[in-house]
Amino acid sequence: MEYVKAGRSGLKLTIITYGSALTIGTESSDPGYAATLIDTAWDLGIRSFDTSNNYGNAEHLVGNALKKYSRHEYVISTKVSWPIGETPYDRGLSRKHILWAIENSINRLDVDYIDIYYAHRYDSDVPMEEIITTFNSLIYSGKIRYWATSEWPLGALVECHNICEKYGYEKPIIEQFIYSYAVRKSEKNGVMNFCKEKGIGMLGFSPLCQGYLTGKYQDGIPINSRLAKSEKLSYKKTGDFYTQYKSVIDFFLSVCNKYSVSPIVLAIKWCVQNFVYPVIGASAPFQILEIVKALDNEIPQCIMEELKSYSLGENE
Predict the structure, then answer these.
(1) Domain extents for the chain?
(2) For residue 311, pLDDT beyond 90
(3) Quick one: which of 21, 28, 165, 268 has the fewest CB in 10 Å?
């Protein structure tokens, strides 16, 4: 498994990160299920693991599954900001909430520190200086090693990095956003260009567009697919993806058919060639294997050029 630098920082991540959204702690709270997925990822060389304090009890399950491995041999990231309760103190990026949330995340993961702590969505109600200095204080206290952002708008990223550069604060090293061949908003809203300009690492979740880029929905809804489990997961967005991105998904699959290329291989290689490293949310061991094996394939440049020929719509 290849390692890549997280932006301009000294931290290296495996090219694939295993994420627990909608699987560990949501689809199942069985420790055995969590261990099977984590162990499969580990055996395939993955050493970067991503979770959040709003993914059910994922932090506890992921931390428990990783206990058998030496702490210095993997990177664990978790997140703060997403609402996890009903009060104003259960969400956002105020110093009060962040300092409370980090203690809880460390306890649930049962670790001494967190490698990457994400500001999980921007909070416009909090002054940027308060956000920055709070995350910096966590770095200096040893509770986290780095901080990062997820799905932040361009304006907030610009303001954040300008303040950090002006006053010498530790900057966020990664921006994690939704990214696949079908969903490329980051290419149009300026976020990707800003990250490249500033040397910010880019991670992309949903690299297979909720499974649509695998082609598995072409003949109906598979029994164990995310769409089939939408009620159980209390997650309705998967069903909207094909409606929103139908034309680009269909084009992608037509290119795969034309060149007899595996859709999974092409989808993963598309992300990697654009320096957006995939955060995968596989719910079964064989899916993790398929994605990791995709890295071994070379894609002719003519296929990539044909993919680039598609003209993106406003929301893609």
Answers:
(1) 3-308
(2) no
(3) 165
- Per the residue annotation, which of 3, 18, 33, 55 is the catalytic one? 55
Assess whether pLDDT exceeds 80 at residue 220: no
- The tokens for 152 are 């932040």
Is 74 assigned a catalytic role? no
102-139: per-residue pLDDT in tens?
Answer: 999 999 999 999 999 999 999 999 999 999 999 999 99
Structure tokens at 222: 């598979």
**Which residues lie below 8 Å from residue 298, measured CB to CB, with a gap of 6+?**
none
Contacts of 98 (CB under 8 A, 6+ apart): 80, 134, 135, 138
Which of 104, 82, 78, 102 has its CA nearest to residue 91?
Answer: 82
- Torsion angle of the four alpha carbons 162, 164, 165, 167, in this order, in degrees rounded to the nearest 10: 120
Residue 4 exposed, middle or buried by CB count within 10 Å (0-12, 13-18, 19+): middle
User: Are the C-beta atoms of 294 and 269 separated by less than 8 Å?
Assistant: yes
Determine contact, residues 127/95, Cβ cutoff 8 Å: no
Length of the chain: 316
For residue 214, the tally of other CB atoms under 10 A from its CB is: 21
CATH architecture of 3-308: Alpha-Beta Barrel (3.20)
**Structure token digits, residue 306:** 């044909």
